[in-house]
């Protein structure tokens, strides 16, 4: 993967602050994610990782600061925000699939309703995406008939169906049984290899080492380190990161 020529970063966060009541969850966060890069956010529970990820498409409104997607400030609400969310794919810890719709219907719903894609085109693209994530044979099944790993791959296909400019992943494997984690990470690694801009909150150190261009380490609402994976895993600069890696990598 090579970073594309210098241009506006796909995601830019500047001086971002966020409180939940007295809890200061994001403290002066400054982060840029260039086009085509995979940035993995690591850190202990309660460090602000998920809040940071959810702030990018305004699922969590911020108290102050600036967030830009593709050079444009994040709209506060209304149609402009809906338009932006259509360009920012999000995959959550829970799969959030519609239980009463088939997997293919889950994938085709938003392109038809939001983008005005024809049913035939949405179906064709939907089947291609299900093929890409390895579950085309499950297209007519309902979510409850699939394993957790298959459901999460369907959720990734659903996000990709909107042809997003950037993909956000908030702990996409944490609700999965261990044997299903790798099948989801393989799909994500494939996307990274294709040059999809990605911001990934995860505990999966192997994915961070293999697929990330950069690792951002958060603690207590602050970005403590922002560096390349090799340097982070072999020579972290902060005591917080060393402590975190010591606990994670010895388990």
CATH superfamily: P-loop containing nucleotide triphosphate hydrolases
Number of strands: 10
Structural class: alpha/beta
Strand content: 15-25%
CATH-assigned fold name: Rossmann fold
Question: What's the N-to-C terminus distance?
Answer: 31 Å
Count of folded domains: 1
Structure characterization notes:
- It catalyses: a polar amino acid(out) + ATP + H2O = a polar amino acid(in) + ADP + phosphate + H(+).
- GO terms for molecular function: ATP binding; ATP hydrolysis activity; ATPase-coupled polar amino acid-transporter activity.
- Residues 11-245 form the ABC transporter domain.
- Its EC number is 7.4.2.1.
- This protein is an alpha/beta fold.
- The chain is built from 9 helices and 10 strands.
- The chain has one domain (11-249): 3-Layer(aba) Sandwich (Rossmann fold), CATH 3.40.50.
- The protein has helices at residues 49-55, 78-87, 103-113, 119-132, 148-160, 178-193, 205-211, 229-234, 239-249, and strands at 11-20, 23-33, 38-42, 64-69, 72-73, 88-91, 166-170, 197-201, 214-219, 222-227.
- Helix 3 (103-113) packs parallel to helix 5 and helix 5 (148-160) runs parallel beside helix 6 (178-193).
- The chain starts with 10 loop residues before the first strand and ends with a helix.
């Amino acid at each position: 993967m090579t970073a594309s020529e210098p241009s506006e970063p796909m995601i830019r966060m500047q001086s971002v602050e966020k409180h939940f009541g007295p809890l200061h969850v994001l403290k002066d966060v400054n982060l840029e994610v260039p086009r085509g890069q995979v940035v993995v956010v690591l850190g202990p529970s309660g460090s602000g990782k998920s809040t940071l990820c959810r702030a990018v498409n305004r699922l969590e409104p911020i108290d102050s600061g600036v967030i830009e997607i593709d050079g444009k400030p994040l709209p506060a609400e209304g149609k402009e925000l809906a338009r932006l969310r259509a360009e920012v794919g999000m995959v959550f810890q829970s799969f959030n699939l519609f239980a009463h719709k088939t997997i293919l219907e889950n994938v085709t719903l938003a392109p038809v309703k939001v983008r005005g894609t024809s049913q035939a085109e949405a179906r064709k693209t939907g089947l291609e995406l299900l093929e890409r994530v390895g579950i085309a044979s499950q297209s007519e099944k309902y979510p409850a008939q699939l394993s957790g790993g298959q459901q999460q791959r369907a959720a990734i296909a659903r996000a990709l169906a909107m042809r997003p400019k950037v993909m956000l992943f908030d702990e996409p494997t944490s609700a999965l049984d261990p044997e299903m984690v790798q099948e989801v990470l393989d799909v994500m690694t494939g996307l990274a290899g294709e040059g999809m801009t990605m911001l990934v909150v995860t505990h999966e150190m192997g994915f961070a080492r293999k697929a990330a261009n950069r690792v951002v380490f958060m603690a207590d609402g602050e970005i403590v380190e922002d560096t390349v994976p090799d340097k982070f895993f072999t020579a972290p600069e902060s005591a917080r990161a060393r402590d975190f890696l010591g606990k994670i990598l010895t388990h």
